[in-house]
């Protein structure tokens, strides 16, 4: 009777341990954030490279409250990739100074005249 009881206890203990491990693994997988779901965070250098401007341009834009939204933690500046994508989408096709369309188009002809007046 003692050997059978020990065998049954071992089987039950093993089943409980397997069930606990299965549920713990499921809980752990749900609790951990998935890397592919996270929005990448860029430094100013990485952001400048990503959107194709100089680092100093981002600094100037930040001082003028322009450019992509940034996260500031003390003196540390970071940018989210999604904010860069929003900024690029919102400014798609804009040209000219300060991201505005030019006030007037400049007409260039082959005769050396710009905008109807001659260059001297």
Structural class: mainly alpha
Strand order of the largest sheet: 1-3-2
Intertermini distance? 115 Å
Oligomer: single chain
Question: Which overall shape is indicated by the principal axes computed on the Cα atoms?
Answer: rod-shaped
- Into which percent range does the helicity of residues fall? 40-55%
Number of helices: 4
What's the overall average pLDDT, rounded?
Answer: 78
Strand segment tally: 5
Outline the low-pLDDT stretches: none
Radius of gyration: 31 Å
Task: Outline the biggest β-sheet.
Answer: 3 strands, antiparallel
Q: Give the SSE string.
A: HEHHEEHEE
Fraction of residues in β-strands? 5-15%
Describe the structure in your own words.
With 120 residues, the chain is mostly helical. The chain has four helices and five strands, in the order αβααββαββ. It has helices at residues 2-31, 44-51, 55-63, 81-90; strands spanning 41-42, 71-73, 76-80, 113-114, 117-118. The strands form two sheets. Strands 1-3-2 form a three-stranded antiparallel β-sheet. The chain has a two-stranded antiparallel sheet with strand order 4-5. A hairpin with a 2-residue loop joins strand 2 (71-73) and strand 3. The longest helix is centred in the first third of the chain and has 30 residues, at 2-31.
Summarize the structure.
The protein is mainly α. The protein has helices at residues 2-31, 44-51, 55-63, 81-90, and strands at residues 41-42, 71-73, 76-80, 113-114, 117-118. The mean pLDDT is 78.
């Amino acid at each position: 009777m003692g050997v059978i009881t020990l065998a049954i206890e071992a089987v039950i203990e093993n089943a409980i341990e397997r069930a606990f491990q299965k549920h713990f693994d499921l809980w752990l997988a749900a609790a951990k954030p998935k890397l592919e779901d996270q929005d990448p965070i860029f430094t100013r250098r990485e952001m400048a490279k990503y959107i194709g401007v100089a680092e100093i341009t981002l600094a100037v834009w930040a001082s003028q409250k322009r450019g992509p939204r940034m996260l500031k933690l003390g003196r540390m500046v970071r940018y989210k990739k999604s904010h860069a994508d929003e900024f690029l989408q919102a400014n798609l096709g804009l040209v000219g100074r300060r991201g505005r369309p030019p006030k007037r188009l400049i007409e260039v002809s082959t005769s050396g005249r710009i905008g109807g007046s001659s260059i001297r």
